């Protein structure tokens, strides 16, 4: 009797819920499906450009057949040329950056970026922008708090303390997403997302245009799906085994910058014998010997505070933008620590600023080969730059849920795909040695060195309508490398000068 009652109740529930269950199932797109809508973008010149804004649906973890489906945003601008070729797929940096978001934030800077850096490729073919899984307004945006606890001001910054605090922040970030399969957020999955979008949009082959992590992402696409790539333009180049930059290579980029700044007559009154690099040596030795105590404000109107500065604070400040770097070094050389102290006060404070969780998920799972890790740990440039850019990532490896990508993917192999590398010799995020190490593996490649170019050298060339932009677009259209120069240059920046009178005046 009880059984028959239960069966009747179950049948009634099934009849009631079946239509809703079918509706819910219908609302969940299958993997590989896309939905899109038409939008209009207003360029920095005021022109209206139509585009397609869409969502690609992919498994959160392709290794799990029961994986839930997540959304990845994309945009497509149609080609303007009459004989459109293969579409260009533009892969942004980060991890934790989005070209798609530029279209919607409404800022003049974003409008200019899209207008100058992306839309010119419509003369080549369709322009497709794709988000990174886990960092898309059309899907999920996984974040963690930058600094949930303040760092003390009464002692210098150290790599050990910084790593300890960062690991705590990452653990909290991971714990905030108990319902997500975070093991699916890898560079391999991002590469497969590109191929899934290509198929969904109906393109047989594509041209990759990758910047910074986007170049690394492009290299992963070329390794996993070489048959779909006609050619690639990579800038701010980050090889698959080079996410953790060699300290001596970063230091070499600073030497290139110092050479130019030493010739600036506006900086000459503050320069010591031996120039800027001599000043770097002197400050480094001084702070390695003993910290300094400074009274300063945070630069935002707060009250004066006492902060202790050491070698670690100086090492982090060495990655200042090129325009301010000489003045920063010379100020410290002449004993003016207020600017560095203000920066330290701001950086050590509690911050709820969201950081992209896919950054550590993707980067740590990619990692480096044991040989490169050995080179990093024994690099002579550590004395100047420290291990700030890799110590925390190596320490977090044991508890990051994304699987190790393996040395087979990390190690470069020969590829016949034509590649144009565009790289600045002042790049302190991905140094010039990065593309130099890849060129031998790509016999159909060309390295365009951008003198005075930083990490976004290609964007700067497009922003300034440099003559080299035409040949770069020609390569995207035809793959022809003949005639491309080995070097181009950006104008010398206007270096800031120290805020105090030169010594002796």
Features:
505 residues; alpha/beta; two-stranded antiparallel sheet; 14 strands; 39% helix
Look at the helices and sheets and give the structural class: alpha/beta
Q: State the total count of DSSP E strands.
A: 14
Tally of helical segments? 19
- Give the overall average pLDDT: 92
| Overall geometric form | globular
The percentage helix is: 25-40%
Instruction: Kindly provide the radius of gyration, computed on alpha-carbon positions and rounded to a whole number of angstroms.
Output: 25 Å
Q: What are the low-pLDDT stretches, counting only 5+ consecutive residues below 50?
A: 1-26
Largest sheet: 10 strands, mixed
| Biggest sheet: strand arrangement | 1-2-3-5-4-7-8-12-13-14
In angstroms, what separates the terminal alpha carbons? 104 Å
Percentage of residues in strands = 15-25%
Describe the secondary structure blueprint for this structure:
Layout: H1 2-27, E1 34-42, E2 48-59, E3 69-77, E4 88-91, H2 99-102, H3 108-118, E5 127-130, E6 143-147, H4 159-175, H5 187-201, E7 206-211, H6 213-224, E8 229-235, H7 247-262, H8 275-289, E9 292-296, E10 305-309, H9 311-317, H10 325-333, H11 338-348, E11 351-356, H12 358-366, H13 370-377, H14 382-385, H15 391-396, H16 407-410, E12 419-424, H17 433-438, E13 445-451, H18 457-463, H19 469-478, E14 487-489
Parallel strand pairs: 4-5, 4-7, 7-8, 8-12, 12-13, 13-14
Antiparallel strand pairs: 1-2, 2-3, 3-5, 6-11, 9-10
Helix pairs in contact: 3-18, 5-6, 8-10
